[in-house]
Amino acid sequence: MRHRDLPPLAAIRAFEAAARHLSFTRAGEELGMTQAAVSYQIKLLEERLGAPLFLRRTRAVELTPAGRRLAPAASDALDRLADAFAAARSDAGGLLSISVLPTFAAHFLAPRIGRFQIRHPAIAVRTRATRDLADFQRDEVDVAIRSGLGDWPGLEVHPLFPVDFTPMLSPKLAGTKGPLETPADLLRLILIDPGDRWWPLWFDAMGVEGFEPTAHPDTRMGDQHLEARAAIGGHGVAILTPAFYREEIAAGMLVQPFPAAAEEGQFYFLVYPSARRNVPKIRAFRDWLLEEVRSDEAEFAPVSAGPQRRVPIARPPAAADTPAGRRRGE
């Protein structure tokens, strides 16, 4: 029998977290331990190793050369152990927990998720529609749908489709104020949530001057899919992502009066921890979702007048890839 002379797992976990954060306090918060307990575990590891792993400064800690050598190996070993444990626990079935943006959940995932469950009856699905970024280390989440630039360290990132946006309204409302011949004609209508940052971005991309949010009633719905429902009801013009409303446009519930959709270079992404990329239920969902996106692109041709086109726009500082920088309810 092979004997491995290994230190306690608790000591390795404490060291790995402290090395990532360069803080005993933050490592303790992550692991549910006190700072003193983290320090004690690392001290055990240092005694076992016979060399210091950290240089302890007054207000910070630094890794020693030995600590820098050990830290990536500790992270990789814990990731592999977590991956193997998750795979063993999940096997081919189990519970798949999905954190998903509300509009994506309502208009893309919900109409299609039944097909995934038919294909994989052993996998139960639980979705949580939220704007909060999932913390894969803390939350019970397997995969997430996010919008942004895709620069999330430690995650596998699969782009789905662009986050673009264009005005839409009901056919009945479209005829109440005369023909909509130019984008500027929309200023005659009620705009749903005129304070949404997408409105000035779209008008600027179309070369329209004179848009002033405060000149329009301050109507707010909070989520894009609620704004779409208000637009379908004839209560104003909503600025929406076309990919979510192709069926409503095809059915005559909404019209997209102008073919141009603005975009800032952001995408919707499927993400999950790199260490869990081979977990069967995650792999099954990834393959199915990417297939659905490809099928959706092939099935739906642009249904607005004229060829669909995207207009890239400069990305302002306020549009950073943070919860505050993303549009509500995406």
From TrEMBL:
The record's listing under Gene3D superfamilies reads: Periplasmic binding protein-like II (3.40.190.10), Winged helix-like DNA-binding domain superfamily/Winged helix DNA-binding domain (1.10.10.10)
Q: Which domain of life is it from?
A: Bacteria
Family note: Belongs to the LysR transcriptional regulatory family.
- Give the encoding gene's name: gcvA
The molecule here is called Transcriptional regulator GcvA
User: What ranges does the record list as Low complexity composition bias?
Assistant: 307-320
Enumerate the UniProt keywords alphabetically: DNA-binding, Transcription, Transcription regulation
Which Pfam families would you find in this protein's record?
A: HTH_1, LysR_substrate
Signal peptide location: none
